[in-house]
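Budget justification, computational time. The allocation requested in the original proposal was used primarily to generate structure tokens for proteins on the priority list. As evidence of use, we reproduce two of the resulting records. The first is shown immediately below.
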Amino acid sequence: MAYYLTNESYKYSEVDPSGSMTFIVTGETSAEDAAAAPGYTPGNTGTIKTDPFTGINMICQSVSVQAIQDSVGAYTVTVEWGAQQSLSTFVTVQSDVGGTFVDVWRSATVPAGGTPSGSDIAGTKLDSAGEPVSQFIWQTTLQISRRYNNSTNPVPWSTIWSNLGKRNSTTLEGAAVGQLLFKGVKVSNIGKCVWEVQFDFVGDQYYHLRQVPTRESDGRVQLDANQAREVKWFQPFLNTANFYTMLGSYSVCAD
């Protein structure tokens, strides 16, 4: 068996570098063996280096093979390179930043980590006769996508189910502990036994806390000097989780 590089071409780009290498392979009895001869496998990383460039890391995207007409044991093998990450390292991160209006009775400090004490939140009274004012707070949606297969890297279903409705116990994509709520996933089959999973989170300036005034038995807000007597923070999502146990470690710069 022998193989010879007959042609190579590359596009150098910060965002989407690509390249191809063409080999002539001789002395093989099958197309499968000829395809393997140059030593490149889809998903593997290689450093493409040609002057005057010092090198660009790319991923082998495909290997194609074609028998050479009227030749015995001779094949043309083409290796295509690109910047798309391999299956185990693939990640995309998207975020939309906006806001929402919430009812507030006090101008008060949000407790650390979004965990309420159960006591009156103090602060400056803002309501009028128990009626709250609307305050604009930031909210952000965050989508992190990873890829999985059914054998070496299966979808972490049990961890996904366990983490639904929980907040982050560690910082994640710039969000402080307690600010991100895990809403769920979207799963797409993108190839044979290959799945892309989009993890959906929502971040909240108030750590998903909301102000709740103490009320009379008939539902009226208890008043003191014509303002809410007592206001507490309410956290509907008390449980937290380390989302890296679900997402795994990742980097958008990894090969």
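The second record produced under the same allocation is shown here.
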Amino acid sequence: MSIKETIFKEARFVRDWALSKGAPKDLFCWCAICSYEIFKRLERFNPVFYLISISKPFLPREGHCYIRCAGYLIDVTARQFNKRNEPIVVSRKPPSNAWYWSEKNCSAIDREYLSIKRAYSVEEIQDLLRTWPSDQRPDW
């Protein structure tokens, strides 16, 4: 089995697991939980957990979590942003219109307020998500 096939298999497992836990079909607000679970399942391949957020004054903070591993972007919650997104994204190159995967996809105004943080271990993920809404955080 290739690394891409392994990644896709693990991502599908996590997506199915989240749905079995009562998550909505588009996995709205489940990105941190699902990304954490994927991270743990792919730990042997040295994945990187990403948290990308935009914090503009006087507006609610927007944020998204996903995984990069072996050169692939992995996201099982992308449908919450665009119903045309695949339910499971395993791609070397993210779509060009999605702020939630890359600062290159943000408008200049959004880029000014953009933050991208990375975590390389379970402990670092826990620190990164400490201020994340409690109902959207993984069960440690």
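A brief technical remark on that second record: The CA atoms of residues 119 and 127 lie 9 Å apart.
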